[in-house]
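Dear colleague,

Following up on yesterday's call, I've attached the two folding results inline so they're easy to grep. Please treat them as preliminary; we haven't cross-checked anything against experimental data yet. The first protein's sequence and structure tokens come first.
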Amino acid sequence: MTETAELERLAKDLLGRSLEELDREEQDVLARVAAGTYIGIDADEAAQLHATLGERLADRVAAVGGSWGFIAAFGIVLLSWMLLNSGAVTAFGIPAFDKYPYIFLNLMLSMLAAIQAPIIMMSQNRQAAKDRVAARHDYEVNLRTQLEILRLSRRVDRFAHLFLQSAKLDEEGSVELDKLERRIARNGGKDDPLT
């Protein structure tokens, strides 16, 4: 049987549709089921293999920028900045380099936000792409599992049918054997084919 004919048969048997009615992913899954092959690497591995230096850097910046450690460290920096530029520290002879309303601090925060936001967006876009790949992978695994369960179910049904036929034949043979034994017993062993 050719590969296309086998795929067509599987499509009809397992999905109840012709091969042409299936989308590309379903056809690929059927081809892997027929061939007995498995899916390749998962979404995270595929993304890491094809990640550029900028994408890996964006992921690291997003990981650091979205952590409690960063928030705590940034809070300490802000408090230190305000303390160093407050009137309390100038009493010790330390000059304030950015007095209230902390214009230079606002400039630094604006620049940080302007740089950090697009980097985090790049990482989020990359994560969304990984999520789409993972969703396709999950769909394929679920479809493949469903197809394999259907195949096993049909195989078990065939075995059960054969077993029942065999049991019926055994029962019919047993009935015939009982009849023969009764006939022999009635005739006193004269009709015994073994003697």
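Below is the second protein, in the same order (sequence, then structure):
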Amino acid sequence: MEEWRGAAGVCINEKSELLMVLQGAPDERRTWSVPSGGKELNETFEDCCMREIEEETGYKTEIIKKMKVKKRKYEEYNISAEVHYFLVKIIGGTRSIQDPDQLIHGIAWKNVQEIKELELSFPEDREFLIECIMK
């Protein structure tokens, strides 16, 4: 089983909306996720989180705190994943897609009601993301 390790950023604005990206490969259905991606060699999970957010949204961020680590096996893809989630705040940049993988198709702030109804890339994150906003 292939191992994948990465990080995800949870960014909530003053309107209690979550920063999300619409993603998908050309042959895939497009779904919503918080900005996230794979850790590069010699990169910390924190650095990975901030780099992925900037690539996918154009925003520069700083880490506020580590929130959780999700470990999951995706048997259908023969992948074991470990994702480190961080609460972040925007400190600069402008909204723009700069994704080198060309998998990001949109950037939006989503409220709790929208998150309840969106087609998520990782549906298992729905309750966690709603809880983050409700705190």
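For the second protein, one point worth flagging: The first strand starts at residue 2 and ends at 11.

Best wishes,
A.L.
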